[in-house]
Amino acid sequence: MSGQTAEGQAAGGQAAGGTAGRTAAGAVPDLDDYRRQVRAWLAANLDRRDDDAPARLRGGDAANLSPERVAEQRALQRRVYEGGYAGITWPAEFGGQGLTPAHEEIFEQESRGYVVADLGIAGLTTTRVCGPTILAHGTDEFRRTHIPRMLSGEEIWVQLFSEPGAGSDLAGVSTRATRTDTGDWVLNGSKVWTSGAYYADYGLCLARTDPTVPKHRGLTWFGVPLTSDGVTIRPIREINGSSEFCEEFFDDVVVSDANRIGAVGDGWTVARTMMVFERLGGDPDEAPRHTGARELAPDLVALARRVGRQGDPVTRQLIARAHVIDLVKEQLDAYVAALTESGAANPNLGSYSKLAAGTLNPVRASIGLEIAAAAGVVWHPQDTEASTTALNYLNGRILAIAGGTNEMQRNGISERILGLPREPAHDLDRPFNELRHN
């Protein structure tokens, strides 16, 4: 990894929180000038990507990040932040650059050929979900403290959302936050299915602060340091060999009221904001957005050649079907993103993209296994590429469940987009402590 050179500083390297992309007068830079600036900075500060290097798989031991790996990636993210290319569209007053989505897209395009920081699934949760939620609902003091640290890689955040007794029914959480005489809070309970918690610094935690009101009204969010006394984190061994998911236990964990996100009892409003960001964030393992014609399912074409089935007519039809799936999802995602960026769209439109991924990803994963046949289930232990098809198959249904099941997306689309009647529920108006649980 190359060190930051004097030329790199001249090409855009600034002090932490600097605005490398802006002109001397602070104006938003012209897109062509910005692209030239980005190219110069990347060439001077980052290593070129090895095209032959395999992508990090979501699953297997390779997906688990060691402390040494996390430290390396934090340092790399810090370099990007100090160069002025982290949080490009985030408000400048909280450590971002205050530029437009077009500027961000330029950096994404130009940086694809370079080695950029990969802080895993928790890194994506930090910048795609937790950060935007804190920007929307956190106090100015909280945002000024934590947003720059999130952008620089100093703080990695995860969602402390689901519980053993509250999955799709997210308003059914029972983790309690009790206020003390000093105004702070004591947290007791547990969370589960938290991606990347084992190397994260903070968790954005939904807790019940008033059990005497209906379940949607007695909730509050807190930023919880995961190194606090009373926090226990246990990785969960998964079917794909990974321990990406974790469960967390809170035993009399003291949380400052300064770490509260949003008003007391208004946690469901914050939760709905978070779910919008989560669904608009897309699948972190998907390829970058394309425009125009795209290459024919390159991963499956390479697989067919690898197993000697590139001339088989059935295989060719399977690859064509996967190509259609890729194209449909890409166009849907682009359309939803364009509507969302316009600011005039229903904020729940992300459910369409989420439902498409949850529905079509398993189909595409099955296509890969059908092409691979026996090679998809048996391989030499030292063949690092051969396990990809099997891992993709095992991971294929992740988005049918994580972040809200397919069924919940359909409910959301019908009720909050199409305006259909809500399905009957017996527990919406009754106090939470009067409901039967589990």
UniProtKB/TrEMBL annotation:
Gene3D superfamilies: Acyl-CoA dehydrogenase/oxidase, N-terminal domain, Butyryl-CoA Dehydrogenase, subunit A, domain 2, Butyryl-CoA Dehydrogenase, subunit A, domain 3. Its EC number is 1.3.99.-. One of its GO terms (cellular component) is plasma membrane. Its cofactor is FAD. The keyword Flavoprotein applies. Residues 265-418 form the Acyl-CoA dehydrogenase/oxidase C-terminal domain. Residues 10-20 have a biased composition (Gly residues). GO terms for molecular function: flavin adenine dinucleotide binding; oxidoreductase activity, acting on the CH-CH group of donors. InterPro entries: Acyl-CoA_Oxase/DH_mid-dom, Acyl-CoA_Oxase/DH_mid-dom_sf, AcylCo_DH-like_C, AcylCo_DH/oxidase_C, AcylCoA_DH/ox_N, AcylCoA_DH/ox_N_sf, AcylCoA_DH/oxidase_NM_dom_sf, Mycobact_Acyl-CoA_DH. Residues 1-28 are annotated as: Disordered. Residues 161-253 form the Acyl-CoA oxidase/dehydrogenase middle domain. Residues 73-154 form the Acyl-CoA dehydrogenase/oxidase N-terminal domain. It is an enzyme of class 1 (oxidoreductase). It comes from the Bacteria. Keywords: FAD, Flavoprotein, Oxidoreductase. PANTHER family: ACYL-COA DEHYDROGENASE, ACYL-COA DEHYDROGENASE FADE34. Belongs to the acyl-CoA dehydrogenase family. This is Acyl-CoA dehydrogenase.
